[in-house]
Write a structure and sequence with these properties.
By secondary structure, the protein is mostly helical. It is elongated and about 45 Å long.
């Protein structure tokens, strides 16, 4: 599910697929250990809605984070620009 979401562009290409895929069993095991109650279908639905749906809060955070990364990299000055060596400055020298 997670890999296909990455392939469809619903999650960033650098998503840790194995980590994200390990969340549902870990959360269900945690439910059993902490509360003594067996996980039910409602918990599974909540996990899917929260972590694996395009409209889930975690998906929105991951996508927003990847967009910030992309914009930060895109707007990074070049070495020449950082040194003040812009094309327009070259023409004036």
């Amino acid at each position: 599910i997670v890999q296909r979401a990455v392939e469809r562009g619903e999650l960033p290409a650098d998503t840790d697929v194995m980590l994200l895929a390990s969340l549902p069993p870990a959360l269900m095991q945690s439910q059993l250990l902490l509360s003594g109650r067996f996980p039910d279908e409602q918990l599974a639905d909540r996990i899917v809605a929260q972590f694996f749906s395009p409209s889930g809060a975690v998906s929105k955070v991951i996508l927003a984070s990847s967009q910030v990364k992309a914009n930060t990299v895109k707007n990074q000055p070049t070495v020449e620009a950082a040194n003040g060596d812009h094309d327009e400055n070259r023409n004036q020298k």
